Amino acid sequence: MDDAGTPFLVDLTFLTRLDQAVSVVVATPGYATLDEEIRGEPPNPFKDCLGADVLARVLLLPHTPMHRTVQDLAAAARQELTAAGYSDDVVACLMQALDPVPARRPSPLLPWAQELRRLVAACPDPGRRRVALSTDAFDRPVAAVGGDRGLRWYTGAAPDAHPAGGPLPPGHGGPLDVRELATVRDARGITVTAAADGTGLLWTARPGEEWTAHTGDARGLAVLTSPRGEVLIWTARHDELLRLRLLPDGSAAPQEVLPAVPGSRVLAAAWDATGHTALLVAEPDRVTHCTWPARPGGAPERATVHAELGVDRGSIALHRGWGELEAVLVTQNGTRTSLSRHHSGAPWASVECVRELGTQVELCGIRQGIARLTAGPHRLTVVTETSAAVKEKILHTGPARLADLHVGHHGDLRVAALVEGKVRCWVETWAEAWELVAIRQS
């Protein structure tokens, strides 16, 4: 790095005597293909291109863990970059240098690097990672967007909504690097925000109050409002599941913990047909459904939802028409699995399994049914299913990501998503039509 703070990439080449063979792997693990290094091939532009490309991926996704091999990194890179909000052009440029066939990688390296830098600079704020949607006490849609630059709030009007709206949580003193985000409306109609930052610290805030840090090493996040008006927050840490209870008066009850498999991560939560909490938890080799005990000290019930590695996102909701739980799991390679479980306690059953990179699905229980929101590279759609009918509405044609689904005070649906680099919001009217409403940063 020079005196002006500009970083430079320096190529360090391993040198040996010409009459000696390289008998050990000479590379930082994960920055060169194992085959190329094990064969002891001499330095060449194709290996340099691959190493520079792996480094570029690390710089573009600084908070995404490193993969064990280049092959693993290349298999996950497209989904990871798309989920982080980088454009198709950036993804295509980076993937070109990760080509498994060395001769197809760009050469010389400098023009490729200059093009990648130009494309990244043209991306509109790619550091946004989470969107959480709720409504305030005046039934106004409120979207929180979190990422590398902290939290941003967007508010919009809604049919019969109060024009001024309500207060929002403070924009300072909280997490600066948001990895997980959730919002919920408490018993008084006040928006409560929960977020986990890049260090794993779990934060909460209410409007007019300072941010509060609760625990470290938080893995995943889910929130619900109990029938008594308490805000319930779940996360995983170390080898346990943790629940926080924020009481209606603003105080916090003692934390509750349950044992968990090390490396677990909370994906989502919902109320089941009996009024118990259905917690969706990703373990290292499977996803489980944990029924949180109704009383402190009670034993939880656990059931395997799906045995699959690399589950990145998940959603769970109660189909209020059939009384069944539904879940959707999305892996890092884009595989999306839909499952359901009958209220009799039967095992979880797979309903559909498709693969599409850059797809996100959110579920939400509605009157006599369920709503399914799908955001992907081609469109943004919402499907409502009741015991009487199934209706599909295409809200946007084109790429959409970071979507969330919420039910308003009167049972109408709200959708927020990142479309064309901007946060947009749709509201369902009393006639079951959908309107794009104006939304602005607050």
Commentary on this structure:
The chain has helices at residues 34-38, 45-60, 70-83, 88-97, 109-121; strands at 128-135, 141-147, 150-156, 178-185, 191-197, 202-205, 212-215, 219-225, 231-237, 240-246, 256-259, 265-271, 277-283, 286-292, 301-306, 311-319, 324-331, 335-341, 349-355, 360-366, 369-375, 379-386, 390-397, 400-407, 413-419, 422-428, 434-437, 439-441. Helix 3 (70-83) runs antiparallel to helix 4 (88-97) and helix 4 (88-97) runs antiparallel to helix 5 (109-121). It folds into two domains: 34-121, no CATH class; 128-441, YVTN repeat-like/Quinoprotein amine dehydrogenase (Methylamine Dehydrogenase, Chain H), CATH 2.130.10. The protein is built from five helices and 28 strands. The model has no long low-confidence stretch (mean pLDDT 83). The protein is mainly β and 442 residues long. Strand 4 (178-185) and strand 5 (191-197) form a beta hairpin.
